[in-house]
Write a structure and sequence with these properties.
Blueprint: H1 2-6, H2 8-33, H3 38-43, H4 47-70, H5 74-97, H6 104-109, H7 113-134
Helix pairs in contact: 2-4, 2-5, 4-5, 4-7, 5-7
Amino acid sequence: MDQFWENQYIQIAAYYSVVILCMVVFLAIFELVTKYKNWEEIKKGNVAVALATGGKIFGVANIFRHTIDAHDSLLTMIGWGVYGFVLLLAGYFIFEFLTPKFKIDEEIQNNNQAVGLISMIISIGLSYVIGAGIS
């Protein structure tokens, strides 16, 4: 059985499958903490929501990229990925806190593309910092 898990193709498929599953769970959590429905807004053509959601997807994927590079086992990778996601989620709340003049969720829901772009850049930027810490 060890030879099975040492096969590079099997390892890649396992990482891929686990990251897809985690991505779905993490996006569902983001859906719970935002005041709007991401996929309904994207379906309506809300570019700000698409930018913010794309940044979250890229951020989570980038964090997992670093966890795969730094750790040998799937369980360790998942653990660090979850930790990285929690930090990324904290960054979302800090962004909301640091902008008291307007509500981030409301601006994104109202298709304020500037706010959506900044949200995307923050998610991507924080994922590099988190990933460097994980590595």
